[in-house]
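Field reference: sequence -> structure
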Amino acid sequence: MAKDSLIGGSIWDEYSQVVQDRMNNPKFMGEITENEAKERGAKLIVADFGAESCGDAVRLYWLVDEATDTIIDAKFKSFGCGTAIASSDTMAELCIGKTVDEAVKITNIDVEKAMRDTPETPAVPPQKMHCSVMAYDVIKAAAASYKGVDPDHFEDEIIVCECARVSLGTIKEVIKLNDLKTVEEITQYTKAGAFCKSCIKPGGHEKREYYLTDILRDTRAEMEQERLKKQANAKALGDQLNFDELSVVGQLKAVEGIMDSEIRPMLMMDGGDLEVIDIQKTPEGNIDIYIRYLGACSGCASGAGGTLYAIENVLQEKLSTNIHVMPI
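Structure field:
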């Protein structure tokens, strides 16, 4: 691939020397035939994968020693740009010597890092990273063919960033653990969105189901809901602990306050009333409140049923779940 086929020398300069060398002189391009597989006593696996995002496609050939599941040779054919050729060549080389299960763990980032001249400098410019993300998918297809399973068998998470192989669960967890507030912070922590950038927001080189902007918004909303829920629970627990630890006089005042605001108006509508006779804390930690019905309530059958339940429910909700109401 010549310099003139790229968009300006500045982009060319963003490719590592390793990538340039593999573009022009790939080491593992070619095919493996059934006759060669028989001669070497290995099983031939052929797998294809095409990337709709850029029109590239790759065919991967494996020779697998079935006794050990080890890939003893690998070659490829690539239909696409120079970046796709270089990354496919690197991917094929990384497969050799690994078992099929080990090869499935090769990620697109592993391929990209193997093409770097130095560990700190990316091998390809971000806008071309999408051309080198077929490695994982074609390896998965080859492994599925060898094992006789569906390719999805190897995928147990929703992948948001194909370039860095970052899952939805990982992104949400990192946002929550580190209280991230921007997409840039997500990229810093996970590398998601650092390369082709199509997973950041709609409008990239391919349509995606999940975008970092939406994940950040929804996760921050979940965090706020969790915060408010914890705050409410803490307040409720604090209120309950405060009531349980009050003196009998303090508890009586709190109960009378709820009686006046929540319960007596309900009873008085039917000509009834009540009074608090005593409050006792049991060894089991319950708080027994003894009441006496007055007026119409004193002869009402519901005083020991629905009305009693309603009174107890209000006091438990407002003051303490340890409250039991006892009519006398």
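Note: DSSP finds twelve helices and eight strands in the chain.
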